[in-house]
Design goal:
396 residues; two-stranded antiparallel ribbon
Amino acid sequence: MAADTATAAPLPARPPPWHDPRIRGIAYQILFVALVAAFGAFLIHNTLVNLRRQNIASGFGFLDREAAFGIGESLIAYSPADTYARAFLVGLLNTLYVAGLGIVLATILGTMMGIARLSSNWLIRKLAQVYVETFRNIPLLLQLFFWWALLRESAPGPRQAWELLPGVLVSNRGVVFPVPVADPVHRWMLLAFVLGILAAVGVSRWSKRRQALTGAQFPMGWVGTGLVLGLPSVVFLAAGAPLQLDWPELKGFNFAGGNAVSPEFAALLIGLTVYTGSFIAEIVRAGILAVSWGQSEAASALGLKPGQRMRLIILPQALRVIIPPMTSEYLSLTKNSSLAVAIGYPDLVSIANTTMNQTGQAVEGIAMIMAVYLAISLVISLFMNLYNRAVALVER
């Protein structure tokens, strides 16, 4: 027994903490964070000292002061007597408005062009290729200048306006179009629209469970469309179909009635849509090509038509490849909307520049711009990641 104890190997000594890789890694991270915090504190202190030396006020108290400048376009009521905070809100809403519309339109245009690039028709395929190669390789700022000059400088005056559609007129004052006159039934139609969407989601989940259990398909496309559009239509017809349009009319040197979109907004929206759509088209094309050709052959063997193959087989699988780069394009479109300042559209950056010129508080203004774009980007990324997780393959 004693011999066994004497010959037993001694336990290895524990290395000192500075030789432990795990502890050393934690120490390096703490040191790095401390250095970053110290550098940030130095920059903040140095900035505050310089501001006090130049008698420049710091803080966000200026937001409660009167702005005293006008804004050409606003989604909410605004006047020069309002505060700088109200002006910032106007710029934020304008940015969100053009970015939201741009994302929707660029997605539709890019998806159509991406599918067209794979068309068996030679003419359609080449036209889509020309679109992609042209607008993807021209800087966005130049495209904005082109669309702005086309709408502002090349378009005729109101008396010689181009009539694209009945009541839709294009002139150097912008684009005017008829809008429905407000009616109490519109609120009930909106409620019916929301209920239709909720009902379509519920029926879609039920149809998926039914198909998983029985294998029988349910015409969800037609049923969903009927719920979303049919319920508001039923409310509209039940109320007597009160459809009255406010048509634009030429009075004096401009149009009265209807709704108007400025050349600056139209140029920005067209530029963002066309430019981003060219990149989305390539993403969609790559996503479709990433799906194995055997999937299309199997769908053809089952008797599915080309439109059904694309909608039911190809695109659902391609989405898993399309979504991640599509998120980057949405973020780029939102940030590229800041180029609106070059053509005079009052977005967040434009209004912030005016505010900084009047108040001299550039640090606060730039910090607000950075915080807003960071928040918007994080929200877009969050929703796109949630959607990407929903369409991802579930490992068994």
